[in-house]
Automatic annotation (TrEMBL):
Name of the featured protein: Intracellular septation protein A
Alphabetically ordered keywords of this record: Membrane, Transmembrane, Transmembrane helix
UniProt KW DNA-binding keyword: no
Transmembrane segments: 7-25, 31-50, 57-75, 87-103, 135-158, 178-195
Keyword NADP: no
Length: 223
């Protein structure tokens, strides 16, 4: 599946929502067509979440934002209000990420711990390593990338709503997906750089080496 991840993203987050939106507007109205168009993306996101099979900081954030976003959409009452509520919610998320920087617990650092923990590396020793200044600054920048994503996305959304009203939905689907890819690209580059720092850091190398030794011991047959 990883091989076709980008293709699945396009199909479930762009193609199917646009097809449902255009096919459903005349039949069920703008608001319900907009709600229905989000279903493929929600189901696909839940499927990807289940595949991870672990509830961690990243999983809680993704599932929580999915549930809250869906509830806000359902309670909006009209297509136009739904679009405006998305703007307000995105500003809230940007504020949440900013708060984690201000309290010196950047959310992307915990996302990074989640990803590496899934590879069998113990979380607590690595957390201490990631709070070293050279690692910490990278995670702050990655968290800032999420903030920029929400703010830039909102600027586009506000402009399109004011210009086109609910007809802006087409452009917004594409813009959001592009911003999502850009943020994902920034995360990949950031984690590649983190990987480089890990190789250069003695404490980080020790954590990975100890993890590797433990896995080897566990895989050895009992005498």
């Amino acid at each position: 599946m990883k091989k076709y991840l980008a293709l699945f993203d396009i199909v479930f987050y762009v193609v199917l929502p646009l097809v449902i939106w255009h096919g459903g507007r005349d039949l069920i109205g703008d608001y319900y067509a907009m709600l229905l168009s989000s279903v493929p993306g929600i189901l696909y996101s839940v499927y990807r979440f289940i595949k991870v099979k672990k509830l961690n900081t990243l999983g809680i954030f993704l599932l929580g934002s999915l549930v809250i976003g869906s509830v806000i959409d359902v309670l909006s009452g009209s297509a136009l209000q739904l679009l405006w509520n998305q703007v307000y919610y995105n500003f809230f998320l940007a504020g949440l990420f900013l708060l984690t920087i201000l309290i010196k617990k950047p959310l992307s650092l915990y996302f990074g711990l989640d990803v590496i923990e899934l590879q069998g590396v113990p979380r607590e020793p690595l957390r201490k390593v990631f709070f070293k200044r050279k690692f910490y600054i990278v995670f702050v920048l990655l968290t800032a990338a999420f903030i920029l994503r929400y703010i830039i996305g909102n600027l586009f959304q506000i402009h399109f709503i004011n210009e086109y009203g609910v007809d802006a939905f087409d452009e917004l689907i594409v813009v959001k997906q592009i911003l999502g890819w850009v943020t994902s690209g920034a995360m990949v580059l950031g984690f590649l750089y983190i990987g480089k720092l890990i190789k250069e850091d003695t404490d980080a190398r020790n954590v990975f080496q100890e993890s590797h030794l433990m896995k080897n011991k566990e895989s050895e047959p009992e005498q």
